[in-house]
Amino acid sequence: MVDVTASHDRPSSASDYVALLKPRVMSLVVFTGLVGYVAAPGAGDGVLGFAAILSIAIAAGASGALNMWFDADIDATMTRTRMRPIPAGRVARDEALMLGLTLSALSVVTMQLAAGPLAAGLLAFTIFFYAVVYTMWLKRSTPQNIVIGGLAGALPPAIAWAAKTGSLTIDPILLVAIIFMWTPPHFWALSLLQKSDYEAAKVPMLPVTHGARSTRRHIFAYSLVLAPLGLAPVFTGLVGWAYGAIAAAGGLFFVFLAWRVLRSQAGEGEGAQNKPARDLFGFSILYLFALFAAVLAERVAA
């Protein structure tokens, strides 16, 4: 195994530190947070709103850096992650730790100043939950890691809603619930494709502990819950039937793709049998983006 405790081999570049922040994950977090802020009632304050969304972005980056610091041994083992900055020797682990801790404090303090204690408290909880509860405990101890740990990635709409209004209602909770239920089938589809990597790293993902067939059944079961849940914001009045049409069509297609995964042999080898899982993983990203883009469009047009 790569010695991830060794110092890095060359001076780090700015791009190496940016990579520590997991910018692709950050972009999704920022987008769902922005939707939560716009969807919340009231005009809001442009400057304070920008500060709140920036705080969410910084917190996401901090969580990513802390995750890479702790998971450097796992990242060094897995093909998908071995070229990340720490296992590739471009950034030292202690630098990633200091970056994560510094950004964590900065994000929470900024949120407190911009939006008050509820939003700041939720943001601090999110960082702690992802970096400590998920990364340090759940990921290495239970096949339900991504189910429980998915709460951290689901909370940004509620944090942004609280930043704007100082309170929470059923609507931001529904937005959180959609992301929460979306996360397991999204990542389990990926884990079917990366099963050998997780086995090598001794990460107890569901395909490793319970097999590919059980994982495929879990994906389908979660999709049956996710599809109608995606329609729930219509019935609370948060959005209208334009969103509803997108949610209905997207949810039905999500279930169809999950059914294809269920009927397939995805995760049981290499090659064409994994295509259904690959298709579901790709569509799941589009599905979540479409739902939140529809919320954003309707609330802006209202």
Q: What features would you highlight for this structure?
A:
single chain, 302 residues, mainly alpha, 15 helices, 77% helix
Q: What does it look like?
A:
- With 302 residues, the protein is mostly helical.
- It is built from 15 helices and no strands.
- The chain has helices at 14-20, 23-39, 46-70, 72-77, 93-115, 117-141, 145-154, 156-165, 170-193, 195-201, 206-209, 211-229, 232-236, 241-263, 275-301.
- Helix 6 (117-141) runs antiparallel to helix 8 (156-165) and helix 14 (241-263) packs antiparallel against helix 15.
- The longest helix is centred in the last third of the chain and has 27 residues, at 275-301.
- It is flat and about 55 Å long.
- The N and C termini lie far apart (56 Å).
- The model has no long low-confidence stretch (mean pLDDT 94).
Number of β-strand runs = 0
Number of helical elements:
15
Q: What distance lies between the first and last C-alpha atoms, to the nearest angstrom?
A: 56 Å
SSE pattern: HHHHHHHHHHHHHHH
- Mean pLDDT figure: 94
Percentage of residues assigned to helices: over 70%
Q: Largest beta sheet, briefly?
A: none
Q: Write down the overall geometry.
A: flat
Radius of gyration: 19 Å
Task: Indicate the proportion of strand residues.
Answer: under 5%
Computed structural class: mainly alpha
Ranges where pLDDT stays below 50 over 5 or more residues in a row are none
Topology summary:
Blueprint (H helix, E strand, L loop, with lengths): L13 H7 L2 H17 L6 H25 L1 H6 L15 H23 L1 H25 L3 H10 L1 H10 L4 H24 L1 H7 L4 H4 L1 H19 L2 H5 L4 H23 L11 H27 L1
Helix pairs in contact: 2-3, 2-8, 2-15, 3-5, 3-6, 3-8, 5-6, 6-7, 6-8, 7-9, 8-9, 9-12, 9-15, 12-14, 14-15
